């Protein structure tokens, strides 16, 4: 299978490379029966973290690291515990008193049509400050009127998604703000929580809960592209979760008029 990213480390003076491929997670830890990369250090858990690669809707790759350990990991010096984070090109994952891994993305993003950043993504990750948030050039999804980028919330030490919507008329701004005011009140496990909004020049930025696994459309097309269809049981479970969220919206007298598998 094609290698889409690499994790590079140095062990006992020797360079080691973990190749990442789509839909084939790498499990790091001490347990030889469960892990694909073994580290025999006392502070490393039997299963310490799981690293996933999924296709990005914009043509690149999304690398995520899920911590399942007792002692956590650090991403670029920031402590991470019992959660999943997106790992960008050049990011460093450090295990406690053990190895560190530098991530290199081999699949690059395609040019974006409508972006808060320059039309062509930069070779190196860039950042822009929007309110209290730091928005990165890591694109998570694109649409006709919006792009979604990975962002950081320094006050709460967490990653979030930033959906940037370009508005051309004042009436469009009012409509978007009205919708956001409705969505920000919603609390449901199958609906991404909206944390905050900011207006910046011709953009409205919506900061919301981050999902590290890509969007449903990419997941479906990725499966069918390899000749393997999503099984009936999995399709039922996906629809069950969607219908739970829709039922919650209907109970709130809210109609969702743009339900689709892609994001945004």
From TrEMBL:
Signal peptide: none
Entry-linked InterPro entries: FHA_dom, Kinase-like_dom_sf, Prot_kinase_dom, Protein_kinase_ATP_BS, SMAD_FHA_dom_sf
GO CC terms, sorted: cytoplasm
All residue ranges annotated as the FHA domain in the record: 26-80
Swiss-Prot/TrEMBL keywords: ATP-binding, Kinase, Nucleotide-binding, Serine/threonine-protein kinase, Transferase
One Pfam family of this chain: FHA
Protein name, as recorded: Kinase-like domain-containing protein
Upper classification of the organism: Eukaryota, Fungi, Dikarya, Basidiomycota, Agaricomycotina
């Amino acid at each position: 299978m094609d290698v889409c990213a690499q994790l590079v480390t140095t062990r006992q003076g020797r360079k080691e490379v973990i190749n990442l491929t789509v839909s084939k997670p790498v499990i790091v830890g001490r347990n030889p029966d469960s892990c694909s990369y073994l580290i025999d250090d006392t502070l490393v858990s039997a299963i310490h973290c799981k690293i996933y690669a999924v296709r990005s809707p914009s043509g690149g790759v999304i690398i995520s690291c899920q911590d399942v350990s007792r002692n956590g990991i650090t991403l670029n010096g920031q402590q991470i515990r019992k959660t999943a984070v997106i790992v960008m090109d050049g990011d460093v994952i450090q295990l406690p008193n053990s190895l560190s891994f530098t991530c290199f993305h081999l699949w690059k993003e395609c040019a974006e049509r409508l972006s808060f950043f320059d039309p062509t993504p930069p070779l190196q990750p860039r950042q822009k400050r929007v309110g209290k948030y730091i928005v990165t050039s890591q694109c998570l999804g694109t649409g006709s009127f919006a792009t979604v980028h990975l962002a950081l919330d320094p006050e709460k030490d967490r990653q979030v998604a930033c959906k940037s919507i370009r508005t051309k008329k004042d009436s469009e701004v009012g409509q978007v703000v009205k919708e956001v005011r409705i969505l920000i009140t919603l609390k449901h496990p199958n609906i991404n929580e909206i944390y905050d909004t900011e207006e910046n020049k011709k953009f409205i930025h919506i900061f919301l809960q981050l999902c590290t696994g890509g969007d449903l459309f990419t997941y479906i097309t990725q499966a069918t592209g390899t000749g393997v269809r999503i099984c009936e049981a999995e399709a039922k479970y996906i629809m069950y979760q969607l219908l739970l969220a829709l039922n919650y919206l209907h109970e709130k007298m809210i109609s969702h008029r743009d339900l689709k598998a892609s994001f945004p």
